[in-house]
Amino acid sequence: MKLFLDSAITDEIRKYYSTGMIDGVTTNPTLIYKSGRNPEDVYQELIDIGIPDISMEVVGDENTMIGEGRRLIKKFGNRQATIKVPCTVDGLAACRALSDEGARVNVTLVFSLAQSILSHKSGATYISPFVGRVNDNSFNGLDLIKEITATFCTQNVESTQVLAASLRDVHSVAECFTYGADIVTMPPSIFDKMYNHVLTEKGLQLFDADYAATFGKAL
Ligand code: E4P
Questions:
Q1: Please, which of 65, 77, 168, 198 could form a disulfide with 94 given CB 3.0 to 4.6 Å?
Q2: What is the Å distance from ligand 1's center to 209 Cα?
């Protein structure tokens, strides 16, 4: 059960990584653009923070993605760098080539069981089904997770892990694990909200008040 942060904001990632609960980071071109930074500066900082698994997305046609993937692996190392490719004909060909060379590949923009099967057949280490974007289009994103994990389980698929992505709320994050996802990636703001429960807050207020009453002083 691994938790990844879906972000390119290194200060936030550093803060939450220090909790000891974060297993990796996923980025994409939109997140990098929003950070206002050069992608490789972001990756280098994440490497320096010690993030064990960093998804770095490549774009373009098959050969461009393969070339970029190789360059990123050479620069940042196989241990921490995961190459992220889209679930397209070119993306899956790049996945095959890079996986055969020993790279971890994360196939992103997965919206169907059929795409998840092709990604597995292309040697993907991770597939990223987008829960939130499916929900945005009036389908049930969690059903997609359930369908993929059930099929991978029935077929004894072990070499490809389900990395649930595009999460917008705490409940869906937790449900992804219930439905068998191996990893869930989420924005730092959602991770932060995972701590919260109204009954915890209410209970703590009472305990604090009673503690203070016991010793005759406020905390
Ligand atoms: C997955 O790896 C993507 O980076 C991400 O989860 C997409 O999320 P969004 O649909 O909120 O943009």
A1: 65
A2: 42
